[in-house]
Recover the amino acids of this structure.
């Protein structure tokens, strides 16, 4: 493999622009709503209310665009597995700014392929909105130095064959894939099928 494999979604300037356009309606609601409320409820000059409304628009966009654009992902090249993970809004905002100004970003974790002993494919339950229960895929990297690195590939839907490309790459390097729950074939389908399968597994415990 000479090319780079991405599992998840790597954000770009184009993604940021698309998100900005897609959510501009929410920004306008925040800006116009704030300006209108200040005009109606306060004795402030109308031009000041408009100015504050413009600020509210940009603040709204600064909140929604990073949240909509930035997500965790894996980047695999012939030597390393690079894991980019963003914990919280401020890291997402910083990554958005770095992309806009063209500043290079670095992975939070980097694993040399030659250091991997084997990989265990598993899952972990998560809490979702409205008290719903969901699941996320977990990869446990067992290294030759006896350490274990857990990686959660993405909070964004994965294209059907991305996982399989990773597994084939690792197997070609004689790295075993441990799949106790038989998840591998379901990762070629879609998120709903994966969730339904894991729910059946949970009921059998």
């Amino acid at each position: 493999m000479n090319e780079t494999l991405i599992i998840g979604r790597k954000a770009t300037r184009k993604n940021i622009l698309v998100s900005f356009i897609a959510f501009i309606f929410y920004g306008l609601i925040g800006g116009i709503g704030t300006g209108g409320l200040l005009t109606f409820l306060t004795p402030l000059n109308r031009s000041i209310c408009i100015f504050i409304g413009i600020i509210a628009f940009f603040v709204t966009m600064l909140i929604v665009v990073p949240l909509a654009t930035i997500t965790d992902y894996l980047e695999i090249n012939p030597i390393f597995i690079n894991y980019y993970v963003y914990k919280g809004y401020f890291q997402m905002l910083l990554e958005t700014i770095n992309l806009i100004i063209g500043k290079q970003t670095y992975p939070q974790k980097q694993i040399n392929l030659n250091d991997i002993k084997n990989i265990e494919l598993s899952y972990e339950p998560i809490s979702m909105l409205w008290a719903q229960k969901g699941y996320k895929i977990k990869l446990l990297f067992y290294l030759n130095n006896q350490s274990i690195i857990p990686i959660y590939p993405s909070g964004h839907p994965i294209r059907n064959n991305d996982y399989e490309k990773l597994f084939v790459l690792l197997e070609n390097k004689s790295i075993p894939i441990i799949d106790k729950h038989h998840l591998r074939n379901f990762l070629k389908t879609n998120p709903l099928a994966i969730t339904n399968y894991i729910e059946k597994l949970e009921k059998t415990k």
Remarks:
- The two ends are 39 Å apart (CA to CA).
- The chain has a mean pLDDT of 85.
